[in-house]
Write a structure and sequence with these properties.
By secondary structure, the protein is of the alpha+beta class. The chain contains 4 helices and 19 strands. It is elongated, with a radius of gyration of 48 Å.
């Protein structure tokens, strides 16, 4: 077999081929790096533009409420107790019973009190008989004294004994009246017309009135008219006045709104866990008697209303520009206590223009602007970055 010798031309071609193969991995390995650098350069050539979300100042109704919670109760609730101790022998009223003034609702066993009355009557009769005896004795002493049969001391003693017997009669009369009253107290009487809303005793139960008066019943003097005792915080109480309308709800009828009127703002403060509140009395009509005593009422007191106010969203007052924001004019460092700062968009659509405004009443969503802003002026409410992220709303400049 004949072996061909390589020519000079073929050797040059092979050398060039193997040289290119040796260099190819270097080119391939550098390709990702070059692509990454290109993307970085392209990204650096652009800029992260700041966009702002705005809302226009508009005319509208603003109603400001003071919210609180309270408890429904009857206008007049009377606790019916007992002044004597003993066993309940009769029970003539129950929960929701309608009672009239003077009606017997319960009775305590009167056996011992009848005995006390008889004893007091007997003691009074004995005291009166003693008075008669002392009177006759005094008459005798007065006859015997001029005859020198009785001494002056005997006469004085007879006078004193008669006076003492009369005093004893008075004491026994008082004891008789007390015994008669205690016997009368055995009948528990309704003091007012109304409905029994609480009964705290049962038939046969023994009550003890020695230390304090036990409460047997609570009678509400009608629940067609009720009241709410609402606890209003000290921050809001300055806005509450007599005659202001009130809307409230109760959990039993969550979808229904009831109405009332502020009738009294009490000046006495109540402090609980360092929170100071003032009790506000709200009158409520309850013709259908849907509302019960003891229900919790969530109260909204209307303290201010503007039917056609210039208003902006509260988010505009809370807006705080990002660090990279550009301004047409530097915002003021300090404001008066009655001023707030809002921002609008400049003519170029990128720069912020600060505006000093005077806010008025607020309903929690919108705030009235009394000065510093015109209708249809766009105000910034949030920042939208190129990544569609809204900036957080921060506090206004320090006042």
């Amino acid at each position: 077999m004949e072996i061909k010798r390589p020519t000079v031309k073929s050797m040059k071609i092979q050398h060039r081929y193997f040289k290119n193969i040796a260099f190819a991995p270097k080119i391939i390995s550098r390709a990702p790096l070059i692509a990454a650098l290109s993307l970085a350069i392209l990204a650096g050539c652009g800029h992260d533009a700041v966009r702002y979300e705005t809302a226009r100042a508009s005319q509208g109704r603003i109603v400001e409420y003071v919210t609180a919670s309270g408890t429904l109760s009857a206008v007049v609730s009377v606790d019916v107790g007992s002044q004597v101790s003993g066993r309940i022998s009769e029970l003539d009223a129950d929960f929701n019973s309608r009672v009239k003034k003077g009606q017997v609702v319960a009775e305590i066993d009167p056996t011992t009190y009848r005995a006390d009355l008889l004893q007091a009557e007997g003691e009074l009769a004995g005291a009166k008989a003693d008075v008669l005896l002392k009177r006759e004795n005094l008459k005798r002493k007065k006859i015997l004294f001029p005859l020198k049969v009785a001494s002056q001391s005997d006469l004085d003693q007879a006078v004193a004994e008669q006076a003492e017997a009369k005093a004893t009669v008075i004491v026994k009369q008082a004891a008789l009246q007390k015994a008669r009253a205690n016997l009368g107290y055995c009948k528990i009487i309704a003091p007012v017309d109304g409905m029994v809303i609480t009964r705290k005793v049962d038939l046969g139960q023994t009550i003890n009135a020695a230390m304090s008066t036990p409460v047997l019943f609570t009678i509400a003097q009608g629940i067609s008219k009720m009241r709410i005792k609402a606890d209003v915080s000290e921050a809001d109480i300055g806005q509450v006045r007599d005659g202001q309308p009130v809307d409230f709800t109760v959990d039993a009828f969550a979808d229904e709104i009831f109405h009332g009127t502020v009738t009294q703002v009490r000046k006495s403060a109540t402090t609980s866990q360092n929170v100071v509140t003032y009790q506000t009395i709200i009158s409520v009509a309850n013709p259908g008697q849907k509302l019960f005593p003891g229900m919790t009422a969530n109260v909204s007191i209307l303290v201010a209303e503007k039917p056609n106010a210039l208003r902006i969203p509260n988010a505009a007052l809370r807006f705080s520009p990002p660090d990279k924001a550009v301004y047409e004019k530097t915002p003021p460092a300090r404001l008066r206590r009655d001023q707030r700062l809002v921002y609008t968009i400049g003519a170029d659509g990128l720069k912020l223009r600060p505006l000093i405004v005077n806010p008025g009443i607020s309903d929690g969503v919108y705030t009235e602007i009394s000065d510093g802003l015109k209708e249809n002026t766009p105000v910034v409410i949030s920042t939208i970055s190129s990544g569609s992220k809204k900036a957080s709303l921060g506090p206004p400049p320090q006042m």
